[in-house]
Amino acid sequence: MVTALAFTSAACGGDDDKKGKSANGLEKTTLTVGAMPVTDDAPLQIAVQKGLFKAEGLDVKLETIAGGADAIPKLKGGALDISFGNFVSFLGASSKGVLDVRFVAEGFQSAPGTHAVLVPKDSPITSVKDLVGKKIAVNTKRNISTLLIRATLEPSGISLDDDKNFVEMPFPAMEAAIKAKSVDAVQAVEPFVTQLQQSVGARVLTDLSQGPTADFPIAGYATSAAFAEKNPKTVAAFQRALAKGQAMAADKQVVQAVLPSYTKITTEVAATLSYGAFPTTLSATRLQRVADVMQQYGYLTTKIDVKSLLISGTS
């Protein structure tokens, strides 16, 4: 089932103005949104820079976060209104009752080259079987990084332990770790996959967008149920603007042009990156796949009906 994000304009204020709402009917016009310096987040940057949010009456302020796990307490505490993050962290928080999550939009689907395990160029590790007992740097444990690795390797009989085999490390720190060989391997995403290959000659050991995780829904935008209930028109306006940014990101040249503005990637390097898909709709079918794979590998103890967590676009 696909829930299309509407592009219609928000209703004008009227009586809403007397209740403290904006002239165009939005409950809140200034939003603090969690963002990451990764390719997956390009449509958000496009929407900000192209004035798509302003056209909807929104002033969107971006706050850099380390990942979905970092966003959870900030969404719960109100420091963030909406945040980009991986679906595994959001679904995990929802299942544990940490945060009553509502999904605002999908952000990114994987493709070959967008997520990979890399090793130093002179590493003795030559196959995925050599990763048994090794230390692998990931952005956050028990999130999309470790799930992709486990789901890709376990069908081949390779079992890894989240606590023993994975070390948490921000993506920007992985280059230094590769150089120092303080870890045996890293799990990186674009633009870091390409950057590590070009800067320190890191080797891609395995691509993580294949088999059970081919074209996998990676990340999206979420808020709390409380915020969504209190600010439905504001959330809908955010959805409309972001969906336009997602649609613009289908032109890879647009993505390549925006990347240098919020990452350390140059225009030349941006042209060499691998790109996945930027969905313009919320699909219960796609996101249910994430929840089901999480349950398969023990990241969820009970089945989640993802459809109940989606916010459909409204006028």
UniProtKB/TrEMBL annotation:
Matches recorded under Pfam families: NMT1 (PF09084)
Record-linked SMART domains: PBPb (SM00062)
Keyword vocabulary terms for this entry: Signal
Protein's cellular compartments: Periplasm
Domain of life: Bacteria
KW Phosphoprotein (keyword) present: no
InterPro entries xrefs: Solute-binding_3/MltF_N (IPR001638), SsuA/THI5 (IPR015168)
Domain Solute-binding protein family 3/N-terminal: 30-252
Location (main, coarse): periplasm
Family the entry assigns: Belongs to the bacterial solute-binding protein SsuA/TauA family.
Name of this protein: ABC transporter substrate-binding protein
Organism: Actinocorallia longicatena
Lineage: Bacteria, Bacillati, Actinomycetota, Actinomycetes, Streptosporangiales
